[in-house]
Amino acid sequence: MPEYQKFEHDVLVIGAGGAGLRAAIEAASVPGLKVGLVCKSLLGKAHTVMAEGGIAAALATVNSADSWKVHFADTMRGGQYVNSWRMAELHAKEAPECVHELEAWGAVFDRTSEGKILQRNFGGHRYPRLAHVGDRTGLEMIRTLQDHGIHQGIDVHMECTVVSLLKDGDRVVGAFGYDRQRGRFILFQAKAIVLATGGVGRAYKITSNSWEYTADGHALAYNSGADLADMEFVQFHPTGMIWPLSVAGILVTEGVRGEGGVLRNSLGKRFMFDDIPENYKSQTADSEEEGWRYTQGDKQARRPPELLTRDHVARCIMREVKAGRGSPHGGVFLDISWIKERIPNAAEHIKKKLPSMYHQFKQLADLDITTTPMEVGPTTHYIMGGVRVNPDTQMSTVPGLFAAGECAAGLHGANRLGGNSLSDLLVFGKRAGKFAAEFAKGQSQGKVDMAQVDSIAKETLAPFDRVSTSGSTGEGPFRIQHVLQEKMQELVGIVRTEKEMVSALDELEKLKQRASVVAVDGNREYNTGWHTALDLPNMLVISEAITRAAIERKESRGGHFREDFQNKEKAFGEFNIIIRRGPGGAMQVVRERIPEMPAELKQIIEEQAK
Amino acid sequence: MSSATFQLWRGSGADGKYTTYTTDYQEGMVVLDVIHKIQAEQAPNLAVRWNCKAGKCGSCSAEINGKPRLMCMTRMNEIPVESPVTIEPMRAFPWIRDLVTDVSWNYRVKKQIKKFKPRPPDNPDGTWSMSQEDVDRVQEFRKCIECFLCQDVCHVLREHNLHEEFVGPRFFVYVAALEMHPLDTENRLEELVTAKGIGYCNITKCCTKVCPENITITDNAIIPLKERVVDEYYDPLKRLFRMFRSK
Ligand SMILES: Cc1cc2nc3c(=O)[nH]c(=O)nc-3n(C[C@H](O)[C@H](O)[C@H](O)COP(=O)(O)OP(=O)(O)OC[C@H]3O[C@@H](n4cnc5c(N)ncnc54)[C@H](O)[C@@H]3O)c2cc1C
Ligand code: SF4
Ligand code: SF4
Ligand code: FES
Fold first, then answer.
1. A542 and A222 in contact (C-beta within 8 Å)?
2. Contact between residue A421 and residue A406 where contact means Cβ atoms under 8 Å apart
3. Does A478 touch chain B (CB under 8 A)?
4. What is the pTM of this model?
5. Percentage helix, strand, coil for chain B under 3-state DSSP, each rounded to 5
6. What mean pLDDT, rounded, does chain B reach?
7. Interval A483-541: pLDDT, tens
C-alpha cells in the first residue's frame, strides 16, 4: 500500500508562473480561504522568468492615442479573428490596471521623461504599448508576484509534479503528485483547481522553452474530460539563436527589432520589405527611413516590416533560407549594430536597452551584438491553443477546473502578439483566482476514490519495475523524447502538409507503444529519468491533439501554415477546433462555431481598420 | 568534436563520491549540455537541477573546478580540460543528491524580511511618478536571479555555518533593493543589525566576484547598507532623537 502526504486546500493552483501566482494571490485575498500553490521547479524559476520584451497594456503613456479599443482591435487582427472576442475585450480593458497593481507591489518599470511607465514598440501593436524593464520584464514580473505572494498566507509546494487530477462524478476534487526531491507521493484535496502550467514547447526539437514545458496542464485537463481548443495554433518565433548548435532555439527578443534592429539576407537586403500582407499595408512603413523614425518614437511614422506579426516574419525567414539567401548556419542576419550610423554612443545604448541579449551572445556565441549582426532563425515559442474556458470566469468544461495563462486557449486566436502573454497571465490569472475562490466557497470537499489513487500510484512506479523484472531491458525515456521532438519538428512544424501529418500520427502511435514500456534505473530521489518517463505520456497525447487539429484546419491562418492549403478561407474563420476525449478514450475532433461578435466590438474593429 | 573527462559528485546522504565519465562534446557546448549528454547516454538517474538553459532562472548553480558558476552559462572552451573537470553541488547548503542541494533555507529567510510598503500614490489615478535616475539603482539589484551562488561562496555561511544569524549577500541585495526603492516607506535597518547579521560581513567581495548578473553586491548594496546602519544607529544626535520619539 503506497503512502501519501495529504494536504487539503479550498483552491489548489497548479503552476507558479505569472498566471498561477496571480491566481493564488487573488484567491488568497478571500478571508478564510486556504490556498495551495504547486510547482515543478523552485519558486520564482517558472518559465515566466524568461520573458524579455514586456507586458502589453494600453497605458497610453508614450502615445496618448492608445486605448483599450486599439489594443482590442490589434489583438483580434493578430489572432486573425478566431480569438474569443470576449477575452480580447476583457484583456484590453483590464491589462492597464493589472500593470499598475504590479507597480503597487514593488515592480520597477523603465520610465518616461515625465516619470511614467515607459512603453516600447512590438510587432502587431499599433502604438508603443509594452511596459518593460530592459529585456528582463518576466523576471521583474515573477519576482514581484513571488515577493508579494509569500506574504499572503499561500501554502507553497515547490518541486512537486502533479500527474493526475481526481474527480468525484463530474467535478474535480483533488490532484495526485510526487515531490521531485524525495519522490514521495502527495495527495491534494481541493474544492476548485486552477491549471496554470504553461506550454508544450518541449515536444519540439528547436524551442525557446524550458524543460517544464511538457504539456502537463493540457494533458491533465484532457484526461479529466475537459475540452481543448485551437491546438493547431503553435507560434514559431522568428528569431531564435541558431549557432552554436547547442544553444539553438534560445530566444532573441523581438525587442531587438523594436529598438531598430533589421533583418537582412546574405545579399545584405532587407527582405521584409518584399512581402507586406494586404491588411497591414496601411500601417507599415514604405521606406527604411520611415521605419527607423518609428523605432525612435516618431508618432507620424509607420512601423518597419520587421515588426509585422511573428507568423509572417517567421515564414519570410524560411523563404529566404529556402531560396539560398540564408546565413552560413541556415538562418538570416539580425543587425542592431547598424544603428551606430544613426546615433552617437550606439554601443552603450544597445547595452542599456538590451542587456541580456548583449550578454547572451557574448557568453554563448562569443559575439558582440554592438558590432556584429546575429544569426537567427525560427524557434518553437508558444502555444495559442489550450484548455477551453469560459471567457469571464476561466472555468473549463469540467466543473471546478479552471485554467489561465499559456495553458488556456482563447485570447490569442491563431497568433499571439508579443507582450500579450504577460498581460494575459495577470488579467486571466486574477480572474481564474477570483472565480475559483467563488466556486470553492459554495462547495464542500468532494470524495476522493482511494482505490483510484492507489492504482495511479502503482502506474507511476511501473517504470522502475520494468527494470528489476526484465533485467533492465526496457528502453530509457530520453531517447523516446528525442525522437518525438525530431518528428514533431519535421512533420508538424512551421510548414505543414496532410501527408506529413498523417505520418506523424503513425509515428506518435509507435512512440506511445515504446513509452508504455519505458524503464528507469535508480530510486525515487531526484531521479530525472523517472521524471521524464512520467512526462512522456503528456507530451505524446498533446502532440496528437496538435496534429489532429492541424489536419482538420485545411487552410493557412496565423501560426498554422499549410503548404497544401496556402490561403486563408472565410469558412474556416467561423469556428474553432475542439479536441476532446471521446467515450472509450479515442480522441475526437469537433468544429465549434464562434459566437457572433456584438455590434459595438465589430464597430471598433472597423474603425481601427482605417 | 573534442572529448573530456568529468568527475561528478554523486550519491546521497552520507554516501558521496566522485564518479568519472568521459564524453565527446561539440563546439559551443556549455557544461550543462555535457551533463545532459552524460545523463542521456551513461547515467539516466543523474540528479541535476536546471530550467531555462539561458542564464535567466538561476537553477543550475554548481561548483565547476571548485568555482561557483551557472552550468548553462559556462562554455566548455572557458575551462581547462587537460585534467578531469570536477563538478560538485553547492557546498553551503544541505545536499540532496548528486548535483542537487536543498536551498529552501533561502526561501525561509526571504519570508522574514519586511515586505515592500509603498507611499500613497502620487497621482489621482492611483499611479506613481519616478524618474529613470531614481530607479536605475534598484534595477541593478532587481536583476538578481536567485542562483544563490553568492551565498555559496560567502565564508560566513560556507565555513562558519552561521545560517541562523546571517542572511547572506543575496538578502543584503534584496534589502538594499527595498530600502532604496523610491516608493518604499518601511524601515529595515534595525533588523539588519539584530537579526540579519550584516556585521559579520567583512567585505571580502567574494560574492561580487561570482555573481552571474554582475551585481556589485558589496560596493553597491552591502557597504551603503552598513553606512546607513552606522548613520542611523551610531550617530549620537539621531540616537537622542530616537529616544525622544519613542517616548
Ligand atoms: C524566452 C521567452 C521570452 C518571452 N517573452 C515574452 C514577452 O516579452 N512578453 C510576453 O508577453 N510573453 C513572453 N513570452 C511568453 C511568456 O513568457 C509565457 O507564455 C508565459 O510566461 C507563460 O506563463 P504561465 O504562467 O502560463 O506559465 P509558466 O510561467 O510557464 O509557469 C508554469 C508553471 O507550472 C508549473 N507546472 C507545469 N506542470 C506542472 C505539473 N505537472 N505539476 C505542477 N506544476 C507544474 C511549472 O513548474 C511552472 O511553475 C516569452 C517566452 C519565452 C520562452
Ligand atoms: S563581502 Fe561579505 S557577504 Fe560578500 S562574500 Fe564577503 S563576507 Fe560574504
Ligand atoms: S546576487 Fe547575484 S549571485 Fe547572488 S543570488 Fe542574486 S544573481 Fe545570484
Ligand atoms: S538553467 Fe536557468 S540559469 Fe541555468
1. yes
2. yes
3. yes
4. 0.94
5. 40, 15, 45
6. 92
7. 999 999 999 999 999 999 999 999 999 999 999 999 998 899 999 999 999 999 999 99
Look up residue B40 and give its three cell numbers: 542521456
* Cα gap A304→A294, rounded to integer Å: 7
ipTM of the complex, rounded to two decimals = 0.94
d(CA A24, CA A16): 9
Q: Which amino acid is located at A306 in the chain?
A: E
Alpha helices, DSSP H only, in B44-125?
104-111
Q: Find all residues with CB under 8 Å of B142, minimum gap 6, and list them.
A: A108, A133, A139, A140, A143, B177
Atom of ligand 4 nearest to the CA of B55: 3
B95: which 3 cell numbers?
545536499
Searching chain A, which residue's CA lies closest to the CA of residue B214? A359
Q: What percent of chain B has pLDDT over 70?
A: 94
- Predicted pLDDT of residue A470: 46
Q: Which residues of chain A make contact with B121, given a CB cutoff of 8 A? A: 104
Cα dihedral sign for B117, B119, B125, B130? negative
A182 closest CA partner among B90, B102, B40: B102
**Residue located via cell numbers 561548483:** B63
Q: Based on the residue annotation, tell me whether A257 is a catalytic residue of this protein.
A: yes
pLDDT digits (tens, 9 = 90+) for B141-169: 999 999 999 999 999 999 999 999 999 99
Distance CA A419, CA A130 (A): 6
Q: Does the pLDDT of residue B247 top 50, yes or no?
A: no
Backbone φ, ψ for residue A178 (5° rounding): -135, 150
Examine the residue annotation and report whether A293 is marked as an active-site residue of this protein: no
Question: Terminus-to-terminus CA distance in chain A, angstroms?
Answer: 67
Q: Is B91 on the interface with A (CB under 8 A)?
A: no
Residue B235 has pLDDT above 70, yes or no: no
- The DSSP code for A382 is E
In terms of phi and psi (left: phi > 0; alpha: psi -120 to 50; beta: otherwise), the region of B160 is alpha
Number of separate helices (H) and strands (E) present in chain B: 10, 7
**Largest interatomic CA distance in chain A:** 73
Distance of CA A182 to the CA centre of its chain: 29
Dihedral, CA of residue A368, residue A372, residue A378 and residue A382, to nearest 10: 40
d(CA A384, CA A421): 10
- For an interface test with A, which of B52, B61, B78, B115 has the most A Cβ atoms less than 10 Å from its Cβ? B52
Atom of ligand 3 nearest to the CA of B217: 1
- The CB density around residue A76, as the number of other CB atoms within 10 Å, is 23
pLDDT of residue B238: 60
Instruction: Give all strands of the β-sheet with A55-56 in edge-to-edge order.
Output: A55-56, A130-131, A119-120
Q: Is A101 on the interface with B (CB under 8 A)?
A: no
Ligand 3 atom closest to B148 (CA): 5
Q: Residues of chain A whose pLDDT is less than 70? A: 1, 467-473
Contact A75, A83 (CB under 8 A): yes
φ, ψ of residue A185 to 5 degrees: the values are -85, 145
Percent with pLDDT over 90 in chain B: 81
**Residue in B with minimal Cα distance to A157:** B104
**Chains A and B: how many Cβ contacts under 8 Å?**
167
| Helix, strand, coil % over all residues of chain A, rounded to 5 | 40, 20, 40
